[in-house]
Amino acid sequence: MGLVNYVGKWIPHLATVTEPLKQLLRKRTGRNTDIQDEWREDQKNAFNDLKAALMKVPNLGYYNPHDKTVVIADASPVGLGAVLVQINKNGPRIIAFGNKTLSSCERRYCQTEKEALALVWAVEHFNMFLYGKVFDLVTDHKPLEVIFGPKAKPCARIERWVLRLQSYNFKVKYSPGKTNIADPLSRLCEVAINPTALFEDHVHAVTESARPVAIPLQEITESSLGDAEIQKVREGLYNGNWDETVKAYKLFHNELCFHGDILLRGTKIVIPTKLRQRVLEAAHEGHPGIVAMKGRLRTKVWWPKCDRDAENICKACKGCMLVSAPSAPNPLKRRDLPSEPWVDIAIDLMGPLPSGDYILVVVDYYTRYKEVKTCRTITSSEIIEMLKDIFSRLGNPVSLTSDNGRQFSSEDFKSFCAERNIRLYNTIPYWPQQNGEVERQNRDILKRLKISQVEKKNWKEALRQYMVMYNSTPHTVTGKTPAELFFRRQFRDKLPMIQDMTHLSEDLEMRDRDKELKEKGKEYADRKRRATSCEFEVGDKVYVKNMTKQNKLSLNYEPETHTVEANKGGDVSLRNDETGQRIRRNVVHLKRVEGQWKVLDDENNVSDAQTNGKNDENESQLE
Fold first, then answer.
1. Structure confidence at residue 209 as a pLDDT band (50, 70, 90)
2. What distance in Å separates the CA atoms of residue 230 and residue 239, rounded to the nearest whole number?
3. Nearest C-alpha neighbor of 535 from the set 453, 613, 592
4. DSSP-assigned letter for residue 272
5. CB atoms within 10 A of CB 161
6. Is the pLDDT of residue 612 over 60?
7. How far is it, in rounded angstroms, from Cα 317 to Cα 300?
C-alpha cells in the first residue's frame, strides 16, 4: 500500500481499487490477527488489479538530467530492492525499478551489511543515470548515515563498498521504513534452498580451476601408491621382476630408489602419470621456452619422455605461438629471364614526396630498362593514362607485375590490362620481395632524390640525369647497358664514344653471367636467411602474422585461425575460420597451429618408451 500510494496520482480510481485492502488494515488495528485469515476473493482481486496498474504506467516519468534525483534502496533477508525517483515542481515520479536476489553467502551478512550492500548495488545498478550527477541516497537504516560519512571507520567489507562509490557525488539520507517504497521490491525474490551462484562466483570458480596449483608431497605419495606403473617399478627394483611396460625405467635401475612410497631417480622425484599434466602446466607458468622449460623440469622431476611432453605443451600454447618468431622463409626462387625485351615488366608507386608528387616506376625484367613518370594523383585512371603513354612508344607487354595497391587491383585497371591482352600479376600482400626488381630500383631513385635535396637542386632535373646515367651504364648482372639490350644500340650521352651500328653482339655470354650470378645470390641469401623448405598442405590450420601492430604489446600473430586452401611455392591462399574472408600471404607470415597436447600413456606406447628411454640413457651418460 505504501508503494501504491506513492505513485497513486497516476492510478485511476485508486480509492475504489484499494478499499478491500484498507478493510484489512482497519480490522487488524489493535488486534494480533494473521492477515491470511482475512484474505478473501475481494482482497485477491484488488491486489492483482493494483499490480496490473503498476505495470501499465509506462509514462510514469522520463529521465531529466536537470531534475533532482533520489535513489531509494532497501534490503530484506532474501533480496535487495531499489527505486530511481526524480522530483520537479509537479512532484515525484518513478524512473526505474530494480531488485536482486542475495546469494547464500550474502544472506549470512548482518542487517547493517545487507543495507549497505543495497546502497552500493543500487548506485551501480543505475550507473548510467547517476554517474557525474549529484543525488540523494535514501535508506531506512539510520546507522548508514554515519557509516558512509567522511569520518567513519567501518569494517573492512563495508569500507571496500564505500571505496567503490568514491566516483559518485551523493549524500546518504535516512527515511523511516514505512515510507520506503523499495521495501516490496526487496521481498519479491523467491527464497531458494540452494540458490544458484552469481556470475562472479562462476568466474572465480573457473579461475581457481584453471590456475596451476602446487603439488604437495602428500599428494605425490597418494598418487604413487595408486599408480600401476610405479608399483611395477617397485616390483622390478625389489624382486628383479621387470614388466615389459616399464622397460623405460629398467634402463635407469641403478639410479632409481624409493623414499617411502615416492620413487626417485637420483635427486629427482618421479611424477606419477596422474600428476604429470599438472606438473607441466606449473612448469609452463610464466611461459618459458622449450629449452628453459626442459631445464626447469630436469632440476627437480623426471619421468620417461618428460622432455617430449614439455616440448609438446610449449608448442600447443596459443599465447606462446602468437608472440613467437616468424617462420623461416622458403628458399629463394629466381625469376627466369624473359625471352626478349618488354615481355615481363614490373610497376610500382613511390611517394608521396615532400612536394606532394608521386613517381610511377616501370622496369623491364629482361633488360632492366627503366621508365619513370611523375604525377599528383594516384587514381587508377591517372595510372592508366601514364601507362598508355608508355605503351604507345614501347608497345604492350605480355605480363605486368604490381603490388596490391588500390590503383593496381581495381576493376578499371584489370579491364585495361584485359583489353590490351596483358596478364596482370599481383604480389602477395606485405611481401614486396616478390616484386624485388622494381623495389630495388625504387631504392636507387630514393637515394638520388635525397642527394638532390642536400644539394638544393631541382629533384625532377636530378631524376632525369639519373635516368640518363642508369640506362647508359652496364648493369652488374647482365654486363650490358639497359638501353643497349632494349634498343640494340648505345645511348648517346655527354661521354664520347665510337658508334658501331652494324655489329650486334650475341647475348649468350650475358645469359650465362645472369644465371651464374643469380645462383650465387640465391645461395648467399638462402644461407644468410637460413631458408628451409616448409610447405603447408591444404587444410592445415595456421596463424597469420599481425601486420598492423597498435603498440608494443600487440601480438605477433592474429589469434584467429586460418585454413590453407592452396599453396604454390610459398604463395599461400587462406580462409579465415571465423569470418570466411580469403587472403594471400607468404609462408613467412604463417605459423602452423600445433595439435592439443595430451600426456601419453606409456603403458600403451611401449616401443616409444623403449626408444626414448635409450635416448634418456645416452643423455644421462653425456651429463
1. very low
2. 14
3. 592
4. -
5. 18
6. no
7. 23
Q: For residues 250 and 256, what is the distance between their CA atoms, to the nearest angstrom?
A: 9
The rounded distance, in Å, linking the Cα atoms of 280 and 264 is 18
Q: At what angle do helices 276-283 and 306-316 cross, to 10 degrees?
A: 60
Beta-carbon contacts of residue 316 (< 8 Å; ≥ 6 apart):
594, 595, 596, 597
Q: What is the pLDDT confidence band of residue 614, given thresholds at 50, 70 and 90?
A: very low
Q: To which H or E segment does residue 69 belong? A: strand 68-75
Distances (CA, A) of 79 to 155, 291, 430, 475, 553: 22, 55, 58, 86, 43
Cell of 365: 625484367
349: exposed, middle or buried (Cβ count in 10 Å: 0-12, 13-18, 19+): buried
How does residue 602 score in pLDDT terms, banded at 50, 70 and 90? very low
3-state secondary structure 444-464: HHHHHHHHHHHCCCCHHHHHH
- What is the C-alpha separation between 215 and 274, in angstroms, rounded? 12
Q: Which residues face 541 on adjacent strands?
A: 563
CB 424 within 8 A of CB 400: yes
Amino acid identity of residue 481, one-letter, is: T
Give the CA angle between residues 467, 471, 472 to the nearest 5°: 115
**DSSP letter string, 162-206:** HHHTTTSEEEEEE--GGG-TTHHHHT-SPP-SSPPPPHHHHHHHH
- What residue type is 403 in one-letter code? D
How is residue 152 written as a grid cell?
567513519
**CB distance 366 to 460 below 8 Å:** no
Please state, in angstroms and rounded to a whole number, the distance separating the CA atoms of residues 43 and 20: 5
175 closest CA partner among 267, 238, 95, 83: 83
What CA–CA distance (Å, rounded) separates 299 from 308?
A: 16
Beta bridge partners of 425: 401
Residue carrying the nine cell digits 596459443 = 318
pTM: 0.47
The DSSP element (H or E) to which 21 belongs, if any, is helix 14-28
Nearest to 345 by CA among 482, 219, 153: 482
Please say whether the beta carbons of 328 and 534 come within 8 A. Answer: yes
pLDDT, tens only, 30-73: 555 677 778 888 888 989 988 888 777 655 678 888 999 999 99
Give the residue-averaged pLDDT of 365-372.
91
Could you tell me which residue, 314 or 181, shows the higher pLDDT?
314
Other C-beta atoms closer than 10 Å to the C-beta of 239 total: 8
Is the CB of residue 120 less than 8 Å from the CB of residue 112?
A: no
Cα atoms in the Cβ-side hemisphere of radius 13 Å centred on 439: 11
At 539, list the grid cell.
587444410
Q: How far apart are CA 102 and CA 79, in angstroms?
A: 5
Q: Say whether pLDDT at 204 is over 50.
A: no
Could you tell me if 597 and 316 are in contact, meaning their C-beta atoms sit under 8 angstroms apart? yes
Cα distance between residue 238 and residue 232, in whole Å: 10
Across the range 290-302, mean pLDDT stands at 88
pLDDT digits (tens, 9 = 90+) for 418-446: 999 999 998 888 877 777 778 888 888 88
DSSP string, 528-547: HHT----PPPTT-EEEEE-S
pLDDT of amino acid 236: 86
* Cell numbers representing residue 425 in the block: 600479376
